[in-house]
């Protein structure tokens, strides 16, 4: 990348994206197209993925590049022509920089998709214009809705294979709007395109004159990135207690962690949970020096004016905005374990820096991904989604996921295998 691009990366704001969809809808090709058209791919990468091997010299045009190969980095992905794991790619424009996660489309890799989408502020849902809305598309869309992704963009791809027919696009747009309205998605944008040829990706092209909206890149550049995370109540999950025990710092005791949400200032009154002890902030220490104020998602060390009991897994909040203490939680669960989730089973809930033993008290319902109806269920199989109530061994200091995506989410760990088997969003 040029020096100019590096300077741009330092000055413009960041948008985290995720691309999802069914198998062969063209996710990797779309990201490859964006990388090529925004000059986000290095020359040696372009040379390595030329369609015609053995040629020397620079790549002459995008047509000579196997776009999907720019993101499919695993040898198994290249051999099978599919995406298996999440691939993260960076690109930038003069207006904004982007980190995009290319998630696998196969149902068996839904767990990877949940990982890639968990930190995104916007999602691109690819749909093959020939196939319309597929079951895996609905599953991904439902998960994105549960994760609270603020912006959903439906990219109706491969329009060149249906003759750029507007009626095909309108049918898919109506189907997706009807599905998303059922789960309260408010910001849904639908764009027709051909990722292979580039129509409506970074440039308008010559074949979709009937579509009057913005290109995909223009849309991404104008989406709001204000998540308001620094305006939420202050939450600092304690990751480590720092006690240097040196001659220069004989009484130093700092509480280290990444601010999950909100803002903290020197002098603020704080409370530590679960102990309930209170104090005031003495210092906000960082690698680059002390601060008067810090905000999410900065990593900091807090020192306090009083000696109070705080350890890893505790949470520091403002006195007037404490987190909820719950010994029973109800959550939407995306189940990704090979063995089904069932009542009375025991798991470990990993929430921020805290771990709590839990038992499944009840499976309230399983969600039908086609109709979004609530079906009675006594277990959740792999890739199924449902509402589950857990009883906890000790109180969890949490928020509702709708209020705070960091302190309202958790993962479930099998206590016997130590495998991650589920992702939960607290209601």
From TrEMBL:
InterPro entries: CysN_GTP-bd, CysN_II, CysN_NoDQ_III, G_TR_CS, GTP-eEF1A_C, P-loop_NTPase, Small_GTP-bd, SO4_adenylTrfase_lsu
Entry's EC annotation: 2.7.7.4
Domain called Tr-type G: residue spans: 12-232
Entry keyword set: ATP-binding, GTP-binding, Nucleotide-binding, Nucleotidyltransferase, Transferase
Annotated signal peptide: none
PROSITE patterns assigned to the protein according to its UniProt record, in alphabetical order: G_TR_1, G_TR_2
Keyword Nucleotidyltransferase assigned: yes
Keyword Nucleotidyltransferase: yes
Broad enzyme group: transferase
Protein name: sulfate adenylyltransferase
